[in-house]
Write a structure and sequence with these properties.
The protein is built from 13 helices and 19 strands. By secondary structure, it is of the alpha/beta class. Bound molecules: 2-acetamido-2-deoxy-beta-D-glucopyranose (NAG) (5 copies). Belongs to the peptidase S8 family.
Length: 466
């Protein structure tokens, strides 16, 4: 596999630094040139998900919404998530996002989700109507609009019945994104964050996240696509950190196997301790001790086993922990919608109340996936909930069930007490965070002398080699 995008990534970074003067940048290590998906390929993908079981050509194997709902055993079928709202936090406006979602919904047979029907809402970082300008980055599929469309379309694909609130931060600075997270957590009880930056001590934001979690808000955050150390806020003990897998299906769309994705960032936090639930479960204590160990869970993230996203007038195959995270948020919405219980999906829930497909192969730069918790995929892939007897939606799912051995973990007492490690060190070297843009990011951060981390988003689109 040959990755491209180094030059454009650096240029994008420099452009943003120069244009805004903002020390905190979208450093774009995860973005690459795009693999277009033709309308014919889409037709073939859809044929296999409407029961005809035709063999899919390799170029038509991107995972469709119904395949993803099936292989992750998401309850609720076509109305999964109904009555729930998922808030998605992104940088910049996204003027075409709603229209693009409508094109996507029509193409994949998903319900319409628009402002007009009350399903879709877009607000600024304060919850108002002052929507910021679009990200000027080109190509558009590599801009925050690409990220935004990936997030929106894949929350809708996994939880078609859920409402979506898009919270648009003024910029990719954490000084805008963190307030946007606070707004999101006041508007919805499920929040999806497909971005992050180098770890640093964020005491105020940590207090906010701990409070939001204690109030029952589920915040899902991507660990990053570098395959190296995980980014913040995924390393916060008050969020659910989502890593990536490579998810393989047979040519007819039936699940075949899943392994840890090499780009799935993970490891031990240098700033934060594990939630009490994580500590009590023993997950990550080897080698992290009481330090926060991430990810917690994983979903498909490898761009080679990626998904179609409609952006800038055509379909592009996307992956990254930016894909895994909205799938996690969508699954959470589906679970909450499926039972009449009032339930909180938090670190305790993830360590006590779910069933998993343990991922035992694959590795990132520093760690290998293995039985039980690991620093590539966390506990594994969230495929069930201990108290929910998810009805099999279709034949694919039965086959999937036969192939999956689910792991049950010991039940432990609940506590949301968090221990935040105080540290004088303000930022980690950005060089541990990035590939393509390492030097530019590090320069930017050291010249800024601020403690705000560089923010990266984690969509990953694939370039088709001819
Ligand atoms: C959710 O969306 C539906 C339309 O799909 C709308 O009728 C409803 O008012 C929305 N609920 C909330 C809480 O926004
Ligand atoms: C966002 O940017 C606009 C235009 O630059 C500005 O008017 C507005 O005050 C900013 N909002 C926040 C919350 O910073
Ligand atoms: C969260 O913060 C609010 C406002 O400061 C406070 O009223 C509330 O009790 C806090 N909730 C929890 C669960 O800590
Ligand atoms: C989650 O697990 C705890 C500990 O076993 C249990 O008390 C609680 O009822 C479970 N919650 C759900 C929603 O199943
Ligand atoms: C993980 O790998 C990266 C890149 O190879 C390296 O810079 C970093 O120090 C490693 N971290 C640990 C904890 O081994």
């Amino acid at each position: 596999m040959h990755w491209r995008g180094l030059t454009s990534a650096v240029l994008i970074l420099l452009f943003i630094v120069q244009s805004s003067g903002d020390p905190v940048v979208d450093n774009d290590h995860g973005r690459h040139a795009t693999r277009p998906i033709s309308e014919e390929d889409l037709d073939r993908m859809l044929e296999t998900t409407t029961g005809s079981r035709q063999k899919r050509a390799p170029e038509a194997r991107a995972l469709t919404p119904s395949i993803v709902r099936t292989i992750y055993n998401i309850p609720g079928g076509d109305t999964a998530g109904s009555g729930q709202t998922v808030a998605i936090v992104v940088a910049f406006g996204a003027s075409s996002a709603e229209a693009d979602l409508e094109v996507y919904s029509t193409r994949f047979g998903l319900p319409s989700c628009t402002t007009a029907n009350g399903c879709f809402k877009k607000v600024d970082q304060n919850g108002g109507n002052n929507i910021p300008r679009d990200d000027p980055t080109t190509p558009i599929s590599s801009s925050w609009l690409g990220e935004t469309n990936l997030d929106i379309q894949w929350v809708h694909a996994t939880a078609p019945g859920a409402n979506i609130t898009l919270v648009c931060a003024n910029s990719s600075s954490s000084s805008d994104l963190y307030p946007a997270v606070m707004t999101a957590a006041s508007l919805a009880d499920i929040v999806s964050l497909s971005w992050g930056g180098a770890e640093s001590l964020q005491s105020n934001f940590e207090r906010f996240l701990a409070n939001a979690s204690a109030r029952g808000v589920s915040i899902f955050a991507a660990t990053g696509d570098s395959g190296g150390p995980a980014t913040y806020p995924a390393t916060s003990p008050s969020v659910i950190a989502v890593g990536g897998t490579t998810t393989l299906t047979e040519s007819d769309g039936i699940f075949s196997s899943e392994s840890g994705w090499s780009g799935s960032s993970g490891g031990c936090s240098n700033f934060y301790t594990a939630s009490e639930a994580q500590q009590a479960s023993g997950s990550g204590t080897d080698p992290c001790g009481t330090r926060r160990a991430v990810p917690d869970i994983s979903f498909n993230g490898d761009p080679t086993s990626g998904v179609p996203v409609y952006v800038d007038g055509s379909y592009v195959q996307f992956g990254g922990t930016s894909l895994a995270t909205p799938i996690a948020a969508g699954r959470a919405a589906a679970v909450k919608a499926f039972t009449s219980d009032i339930r909180v999906i938090d670190s305790f829930y993830i360590y006590n109340n779910i069933t998993l497909r343990d991922i035992t192969s694959g590795s990132n730069q520093n760690y290998s996936a293995g039985g039980g918790f690991d620093l590539v995929t966390g506990r594994g892939v969230w495929t069930g909930d201990l108290d929910i007897n998810t009805p099999n939606a279709d034949e694919n799912m039965k086959i999937t069930h036969l192939m999956i051995s689910e792991t049950m973990q010991t039940k432990l007492p609940m506590s949301m007490v968090l221990n935040v490690v105080e540290s004088t060190q303000e930022t980690l070297s950005a060089t541990t965070q990035t590939r393509a843009t390492t030097s530019a990011t590090a320069t930017s951060m050291s010249s800024s002398a601020l403690s705000l981390p560089a923010i990266t988003f984690f969509s990953f689109s694939l370039f088709l080699l001819l």
